Amino acid sequence: MNELITQVNDAVWGYVLIFALVCCGIWFTWRTRFVQFRMIGEMLRLLTESAVDTVEEQVKEQRKGGRSKHISSFQAFAVSVATRVGTGNLAGVATAIAIGGPGAVFWMWVIALIGSATAFVESTLAQLYKLKHKDSFIGGPAYYIQHGLHQRWMAVLFAILITCQFGLSNNSIQANTICEAMSEAFGWSPVWVGVALAAMALFIVFGGIQRIAHVSSVLVPLMAVGYMVLAVVVIGMNIGQIPHVLKVIFYDAFGIEQVAGGGLGATIMHGIRRGLFSNEAGEGSAPNVAATASTTHPVKQGLIQALGVFTDTLLVCSCTAFIILLSGLYQTPNLNGIALTQASLQSEVGSVGPVFVAIAIFLFAFSSIIGNYYYGEANIRFITSNTKVMTVYRLFSGGVMVIFGAMASFELVWNIVDFFMALLTACNLVAITLLGRYVFRLLDDYRSQKRRGIKEPVFHRSQLPEIADEIACWED
Asked: Is 461 exposed, middle or buried (0-12, 13-18, 19+ CB in 10 A)?
């Protein structure tokens, strides 16, 4: 079974999806006139100003004796980064290097640079077609497929695929990685760790999510900063070897030996696979969070989410890659995934390395389990309001798939994730390619307002009269 899924994944990723991802990224980069590079200053401005606005709004609400119920652009950015930063950054990067070689890191960078334009398009569309939901907003690919393309069947298909990918198979990856990290650091049995994880996850999804998620939202960013600081220290200790590491990455990405040996395809394939798993650009997950933000123009959230791709891949993933390549352990047989990251850190900072990674991956991956569950729940509610269906989903997402991931092999859980990720991404790419023309017009409008001296551009649905009836928000 595992070999069959591997063959299917290699066929789909090798000949179809990589071509589609790269072509879409290049097309969106060209049509937006390199938005991810030309407007990076605006991205940083929006992020810092929305963070200040969020604090000021919270202070005002607290003085009134209440609490702000709106989700700011900064908060949406923070949530999306929290779901991105995790297993893909620590275990996914190690897998890409172990299987595809050091050159896979270069292709992770490439897919992030061009994929950030894809992330801009999908998140802007999510904002354009969002709906009002209680005190905030709700939206995502299922919504812009239904209201933009008028294809209910395709919207339902996407909702099913993202539930299978994030709510089910992706949770097995998180559990598998946590169990392996705990086994390497403390020698704990994967079975018992899996049972404990399932119990905690079920407690959250059946009622305790707000309290635990609040704690995670504090601990996870601190651990992410701590991990990056540790990585910078390791790099600083080996600063003289950085030119050699960069040479190895670029040589392996285009090396004559790889081309002659037929290994270049594997290098590109695994670099793009793991890059997409980490930054999720084009996969259709981040738009679910992007749609919840309250902002004055859809382009604002698109720009901020494009910045999230850079943060994830060019910063956090690169930290892991340099740690592994500096250690030289990536050439060790049978050393893969999170175990490779732990062993690499141990070679640099001693026995504290595996323990630190085990704690970090627990916080990252467990918070991802919560986020993954939300993606599934939001899309199941798009399909049906049947409470029994939701109960079954909760049992599988928080219990069955977590225990399955703890007991299944490393190769099997990654193969299942790759399979659903391919289908999910293909569905989303079709939708954003067909609807992308509206994003280009929104971006032109945003730039036009900025040129006229308007600091905070505003959008109204009457500015797109041909689809004004399809847009639920953005009143005149």
From this structure: middle
Local structure of 417: helix, strand or coil: helix
For the four alpha carbons of 401, 286, 200 and 345, in that order, the dihedral sign comes to positive
Mean pLDDT of 278-287: 79
Alpha-carbon distance of 226 to 369, in angstroms, equals 21
Mean pLDDT of 286-311: 86
Query: Tokens for 109?
Result: 């960078």
DSSP alpha helix (H) spans, 101-169: 103-128, 141-144, 152-162
User: What 3-state class would DSSP assign to 346?
Assistant: helix
**CA–CA gap between residue 122 and residue 32 (Å, rounded):** 13
Structure tokens at 375: 């993606």
Give the integer Cα–Cα distance in Å for 407 and 145.
37
Alpha helices in 238-336 (DSSP H): 242-254, 256-261, 264-279, 286-290, 298-309, 318-327
Q: Is residue 93 helix, strand or coil?
A: helix
Closest Cα to residue 397, out of 214, 138, 162?
Answer: 162
Minimal CA–CA distance to 358: which of 185, 161, 164, 176?
Answer: 185
Q: Under a CB-based contact definition with an 8 Å cutoff, are residues 360 and 338 in contact?
A: no
Residues whose CB is less than 8 angstroms from the CB of residue 294 and which lie 6 or more positions away in sequence, other chains included = 70, 71, 72, 73, 136, 137
Q: Encoding tokens for residue 166?
A: 């994030």
* pLDDT higher than threshold 70 for residue 262: no
Exposure string for 188-213, b = 16+ CB within 10 A, e = fewer: eebeebbebbbebbbebbeeebeebb
In which element (H, E) is residue 39 found? Answer: none
137 φ/ψ angles, rounded to the nearest 5 degrees: -125, 165
Confirm if 83 and 224 have CB atoms less than 8 A apart.
no
Dihedral angle over CA of 80, 81, 84, 90, nearest 10: -170
The model's pLDDT over 93-120, given as tens digits with 9 standing for 90+, comes to 887 788 778 888 888 888 888 889 999 9
Asked if residue 180 lies in contact with residue 338, where contact means CB atoms within 8 angstroms, the answer is yes
Burial of 335 (0-12, 13-18, 19+ CB in 10 A): middle
Q: Kindly state the average pLDDT of the residues 343-352.
A: 80
